User: Fold Ribonuclease HII from Flagellimonas hymeniacidonis.
Amino acid sequence: MLKPIYKHYNEAGTDEAGRGCLAGPVTAGAIVLPKGFSNKILNDSKQLSEVKRELLRPILEKEAVTFAVCHVFENEIDSINILNASILAMHRALDKLSQTPSFILVDGNRFKPYPNVLHECIIKGDGKFMSIAAASILAKTYRDEYMCKIHEEFPMYNWKKNKGYPTKEHREAIRAFGLTKYHRKSFKQLPEQLTLDI
Assistant:
């Protein structure tokens, strides 16, 4: 059972999607849910089917006090590393909220202080608190939508199915066709990779 709040109302939950991918952005969601909000389906996005995530997204967007989503793209990931890019995506999503939250709940164990707002990192928080679960669903659905869009440009990698994650099929496509502009050049793309001609 997800808890509605941690300390007080007007808390923002934030989470990211796509951290372990070989291609595409890392995407963060941030959301403030209204007092008394509840939803029986809402859970960590990884525990829900794509159908349920897509069902929840418009409900969360309609019910939220405020929400925002932000992508940080491959070049920036390669420049500052994936951990920093993940935190940056969360900060930028928080920046886009229409009001400043009273407190920030962060999924995971790493975060950098956000200006003038206290935060707490909650390990596996997307399975514990509604606002983090909601943020995880926004991050996942917006990122999946983006990956399906760029799939049209490079269908041989089948991003509409694997979403850029290091599946066997995705690695085979990299082996056959090389890297695209959407691949993260700082990531180990193939298991036997020492250097990659790029």
Q: What stands out?
A: The first strand starts at residue 11 and ends at 17.
